[in-house]
Specification:
Belongs to the ABC transporter superfamily. By secondary structure, the chain is an alpha/beta fold. The chain is 39% helix and 26% strand. 36% of the residues are buried. It binds adenosine-5'-triphosphate (ATP).
Amino acid sequence: MKVLFSVKDVTKTFTLSKKQRKILKTNDSKKVAVKSLSFDAYEGEIYGLLGPNGAGKTTTLRIASSLIKPDSGDVFIDGISVVNDPSNVRRKIGFLTSELKLEDFFTPNYLFDYFSRLHNIEEETIQARKKMLFDQFGIQPFCEVKVSDLSTGMKQKVSLAISIAHDPSIIIFDEPTNGLDIITAKTVTDFLIHLKQTGKTIILSTHIFSLVEKLCDRVGIIIEGEMVYENTVAEIMKTTDLETLFFQLYESKGGVL
Ligand SMILES: Nc1ncnc2c1ncn2[C@@H]1O[C@H](COP(=O)(O)OP(=O)(O)OP(=O)(O)O)[C@@H](O)[C@H]1O
């Protein structure tokens, strides 16, 4: 099996502002968000990154997407170093987060074209791909409506379409169903299955156990920035369920319920 996504010994520390220290209820001036984290995802699989709030999932995926730099370590996307060659990495990946903010003033049509052109995609391909994705997600009737007037679900579907406009082979989804109504959440999860069927490699961060059980081939459990467990979902389900396993690990790491 070919490794397409490889996190190698990544560490990331943030300096905390006064406000952040208050929110995190700490006097420490630094927060180690990710500690010597390593894991691989194979071509064509859905790899789930599961962890509680603040575990370091988003930080890891932002590093993998070249949005922030690690203190040490690296992420290799199809062998390309995100530290040394971030622009080539961006060509290979799609990144979707539930926090993605689309500019309110623009329309789905405009934004899709704009981001596609940033990837230097040919105009004919942009329009064909837009039609396919907008039809798939029911965006077409809203394609000339300003983002500010779209529902949360429609915004997320537009974000999803834009994140894969360049047909990336590796797609990173950070909590993609967060804050979505059940219908839109299902559209998104069904689409993840469709992407897997078309051979894409998907990294999915979530804290929803059922989502991992339903979608993922393998799962890595991350607590306090460290990988504490990794296995195939099928193997886990032979003896227990993910929720039971997770809380056992959480308590054994000193987590308080
Ligand atoms: N820019 C930042 N400045 C300071 N601390 C940060 C910053 N980004 C993240 N952190 C801290 O790093 C830790 C890991 O955060 P991260 O967002 O990666 O976790 P997460 O697993 O994605 O959690 P969630 O599900 O809540 O998004 C948290 O303690 C968080 O407060």
